[in-house]
Amino acid sequence: MSAEKRNALGRGLSALLNDSESVNQNQNHNKASVLSEPAGNNPGSVNEIKLSEIEVNPFQPRTDFDQQALAELADSIKLQGLIQPITVRRLNAHSYQLISGERRFRASKLAGLTQIPAYIRSANDQQMLEMALIENIQREDLNAIEVAISLQRMLEECSLKQEELGVRVSKNRSTVTNYLRLLKLPPAIQKSIRDNEITMGHARALITIDDPAKQIYLHQHIIQQGLSVRKTEELVREMQRSPIKKEGKQPEPISFQVQKIQDDLASKFSTRVKLKIAGQGRGTIEIPFLSESDLNRILEIMDW
């Protein structure tokens, strides 16, 4: 991710943090007589807070943390200290909740720190969720599916429209739409994107194919042949130009239940699967393969 993009996203998060302070300014003023601020813990400034007084953000969309990377960060913190403060909100006089910086928080614990530098902000639950999701989207190591899931959560859980979402994360509407469309791909293809087997460019080409079975078939071909994005786009165009044969007797339309079984089997085997029902509970299942190694892969899935 370029420095320019990182700065743009950072402005979105900063704006949200500033907005949260404005929204809660009156509430904080009203609570001042009930809750006194401990000396040195001033909202907006960097404060040293006990790690034992901080709880993780329940809205954090990130669940997996690379343990080796955490250990390396902890070693760095031992030598140089924590350079970038975390951000928290105050729950009460001696209790805080993370807004951003859970990786730094975890590494500081591993490093044996008892206190950590932190910014204290004011935020309600929806703002906490937005901040956590925006911070997640800013991560450089985030794959396209993780970005798409975070964007979808912001739409659904923060009640945002796509235009508003684009403003929050400093992305135009078409970019947001392209990410969200990835979630309509079959699970096997989404997993392949998440595992970096195919790129966002491959996925955008596959999205233009309407038939999930064809998507899965071409997806497997991409992996088997190591196809480039350009070659994938050419195959998609060729597939879409191919005339549909109408000679002879047309097959009976399949039911929703049969289509669902076909789609589930196609996702499981990462290839096109055809289910033929002959009546009276009889039928056949066809599972094509591209090569001997592809056959072995399918047999392994069948635990043969």
Automatic annotation (TrEMBL):
PANTHER family xref list: CHROMOSOME-PARTITIONING PROTEIN PARB-RELATED (PTHR33375)
Gene Ontology MF annotations: DNA binding
Similarity comment: Belongs to the ParB family.
Swiss-Prot/TrEMBL keywords: Chromosome partition, DNA-binding
ParB-like N-terminal domain sequence ranges: 47-137
GO biological process, alphabetically ordered: chromosome segregation
GO terms under cellular component: chromosome
Record InterPro entries: Chromosome_partition/occlusion (IPR050336), HTH_ParB/Spo0J (IPR041468), ParB/RepB/Spo0J (IPR004437), ParB/Sulfiredoxin_sf (IPR036086), ParB_N (IPR003115)
Keyword DNA-binding applies: yes
UniProt-recorded name of the protein: Chromosome partitioning protein ParB
Stored Pfam families: HTH_ParB, ParB_N
Entry keyword annotation includes Iron: no
Highest taxon of source: Bacteria
NCBIfam families xref list: parB_part
